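tmp note - Aminotransferase
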Amino acid sequence: MSFLSQRLSRVKPSPTMAITARAAELKAAGKDIISLSAGEPDFDTPAHIRAAAKAAIDAGHTRYTTVDGTPALKAAICRKFRRDNALEYTPAQVSVSSGGKQVLWNALMATLNPGDEVIIPAPYWVSYPDMVLMAGGTPVVVPAGPETGYRMTAQALEAAITPRTKWLIFNSPSNPTGAGYDAAALRALTDVLLHHPQVWVMSDDMYEHLVFDDFRFVTPAQMEPRLMDRTLTVNGVSKAYAMTGWRIGYAAGPERLIRAMGKVQSQSTSNPCSVSQMAALAALDGPQEYLEDNKALFQRRRDLVVSALNGCAGVHCPVPEGAFYVYPDISGCIGKRSAKGTRIGTDEDFATALLDETGVAVVFGAAFGLSPAFRVSYASADDTLRDACGRIARFCAGLR
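out:
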């Protein structure tokens, strides 16, 4: 009898974490490494949020809280949904967890039975399929390539739905592509979902505040109120507020689902960090104006990286609507050899050779379910991005 569970054999470790760890090891060994693999803002958590956390410690907010979030933070989350999305929720419809990933995990664990299907557009965040598998469900991957702007079409969604479909996981703007669904594109999807009342929507809105140009963010429950009773709207403070390490994610949805998610959390981690919850309260209720400054900074970096990568031989880099990632297609690089003789048969070969030969760490497209491509996180200083893109350009120029 195997000691490890069969469930564990269905999943793999996070490729993004593995590549980030590999880059860190090489850097610690003295190598000249630039890591563009981690999805993490490079600036500090704003001062007023840090001050709120310090004050919380001094005030003794260091004990257990309600399992799925303090009443004060839940009320702030309700205010956030009203302010930003015109969505009305009560605190009983809100759940707070140790990061957005745990919110998704709780929902899947609370709802999936063997044989239940979850539709996931690809490219996808690396954890979606594996969390579905761990929860006993079946991921149904729907390719959404560059020909559709990395957006799933209504026709593709309709074709993927079966009587076993329980969830659609929806992410806009997307990790890894940065692609966003505007109102027309989202309306086409919600129109399909109205005809399939057994399908719930898990909307991952983590990059809501990082959208560029004239793109206007809209979330499914906001677009189609008739889906409110079967939509879980997921968000958090990690990306927009530069609070990745604080580990606070949250969601709002039907009360019966929120209660079930709370039951899962009560028997796993229990409450999120009490101090982090006080910091998140300050983030959501405090000044929001600086989010525009951050957005402008990321848009400048996006334009820098897109321009540089489109100048690389064999690379085509679409312009994303949001987040802080680009997902260049490298079809023109496959089948060649690097200057040091490495054959580039896959996008994983490309990423491995790029790291070994230039010191630039990126995540290969197969990790996100659609090849050949790679993901760049441009949440780094401008000079670092210029250096990295220059190395990528020289690497591509050397392919023969």
